[in-house]
Amino acid sequence: MNQETNTDQNLLKMLSSDDAVLRTEALYNLTFEEVDNEVVKTITELILADDKAIRNAASNFLIQNNNPTIPFAVVDYIGSPEISIRNLAGEILLKKGTNSVDAICAKVPTLKEDDDIKFLVDILGLIGDKCPEDLIIDILTTNQNENVIVACIEALGNIYSEKAIETIIPFFDKAEVLRPVVIEATGKIRTLKSLKFITEKFKSDDDLLKFTMIESMGEIGDEETFYFLLSQIDILNGALIWPLLEAIYKLKIKHDLEVPFDERIKKCVLDTIINAEPRYQIVAAHLVTVFDDPEILYACLSIYGLDSELNEVLFDKFMENKGLIVSKLYTVIDNNNNYLSAILDLLQNILSYDSECLTSLGELERRRLTESLSQSLTNSDEGVRIAAAELLFRIDTETALLFLDTMISDENFWNRIRLLDMISEMDRPEVIEALEKLSQDSEEMVSDKAKEIALRKQYLTN
Fold first, then answer.
1. Distances (CA, A) of 439 to 416, 428, 435, 442, 444
2. Cα separation of 376 and 330, whole Å?
3. What's the pLDDT tens digit per position in 64-106?
4. Domain-by-domain residue ranges, the chain?
5. Residue 26 and residue 64: Cα distance in Å, rounded?
6. Nearest to 76 by CA among 57, 103, 97, 101
7. What span, in angstroms and rounded, lies between the C-alpha atoms of 248 and 226?
């Protein structure tokens, strides 16, 4: 017993040392050790330290160590007038998760400052444990501060408190600022009463509120909701179309329903593909898989490469319509968008699966495609440049040879080496001239390879 006491006294002495390095090392060494409450209290006080290394080591200990008194020691610091200390205490409590719930629930009833109450209610909501729902409901019904009310409603939504739904809904009509919060929270709670409430309030003129309602209906809706949302396609417009399409798609998958692919849906899909954020474009792409509409397929080419999931969805559809896609690829290449590399890879894949699809191109379409590829030989992306060169040789050797000077001037020496591979078996005057130039290349690997190919050709000729 005396040995343990001496050990604890030594620890306290090290933690109180003027040597910052010693204190920091002690804190890290104690991270997973059993310590008594006095040591916990001493370490908690170190989050006030001016030395950043000590403060970080202390917070690391408080987060990682399993001593059950830590949250009770830390929670007192949420009232600190220094925001950095308050936020650090909040971060520790949040990272300790459900282990912090009892300490927070014990602290909240003692608080008089609404900012402190809100702060801890926010943390309870982020932790997500359902145990404090009665406490949060009590605060919601008794506290008059708008920020605290918002925090309570959000927290009850985050912990999926079905018990709170009857308490939350009346706040919708108490203040406009509360409406989006109420809708979002009731949507998260996912009860039949939530769904009924959100559907009844859908007539709102507030687009932002409708946006939130549509998202919630997509999460908690039933078959009736699916058809209700379909009925809104002709009514809603602008950015509201995007979450509407997403909600319809989610309910289609969830309840195994069929989307009527008519002109209305086509219009929504097109608008989403062209104008929406990636999240909604991916949903639209999933719906594209049942369309064989050229206009929609062309629109999808403009976003191919945006997202790996999106690429997977669209790739098979493009392969089903290879001839149609190849005939329009030049327009996407000409636009030189951020996903040009993915577009060139797509063309490579199409040609690998079916090189004959080029024969279906008219002379004008074929010329436009080779012109677009030749313009990509000077693209700032080295991957695009070499892919364009490979495709040119694959599609039209004569055109490729016209641009051989551009290719051998590529600033990336790996591209020049790859070019040598492409032309090594060709017996053309242009190739012999290119080999002569590359044999003088400043990069030894390039010049040696060019000389080797030239000698081999000379040997075969003799």
1. 11, 17, 6, 9, 9
2. 11
3. 999 999 999 999 999 999 999 999 999 999 999 999 999 999 9
4. 236-320, 418-462
5. 14
6. 103
7. 6
- As a whole number of angstroms, the distance between CA 291 and CA 298 comes to 12
State the amino acid at position 39 in one-letter form.
V
Rounded to 5 degrees, φ, ψ at 385 are -60, -50
Helix (H, G, I), strand (E, B) or coil at 161: coil
* pLDDT score recorded for residue 343: 93
Residue where the block lists tokens 């039949």 = 192
- Of 401, 402, 399, residue with least CA distance to 368: 399
Note whether 278 and 316 are within 8 A (CB).
Answer: no
As a whole number, the mean pLDDT across the chain is: 90
184, 216 contact by CB (below 8 A)? yes
Count of C-beta atoms within a 10 Å radius of residue 284:
27
Distance CA 23, CA 14 (A): 6
Residue type, 382: E
Nearest-CA neighbor of 404 among 382, 383, 422?
A: 422
Pick the closest to residue 154 from 135, 182, 134, 132 (CA basis): 182
Amino acid sitting at position 156: L
**Amino acid identity for residue 297 in this structure:** L
- Cβ atoms of 346 and 314 closer than 8 Å: no
For 377, half-sphere exposure in the C-beta direction (CA atoms, 13 angstrom radius) is: 24
The C-alpha atoms of residue 348 and residue 350 are separated, in whole angstroms, by 6
Quote the tokens at residue 32. 């997973």
What pTM did the predictor assign? Answer: 0.72
Q: Any long-range contacts for 367-372 (C-beta under 8 Å, 24+ apart)?
A: 368/330, 369/326, 369/329, 369/330, 369/333, 369/395, 370/395, 370/396, 370/399, 371/330, 372/329, 372/330, 372/333, 372/334
- In contact, 331 and 300? CB cutoff 8 Å: no
pLDDT 10s digits, 227-237: 999 999 989 88
3-21 core/surface letters (b: 16 or more CB in 10 A; e: else): eeeeeeeebbebbeeeeee
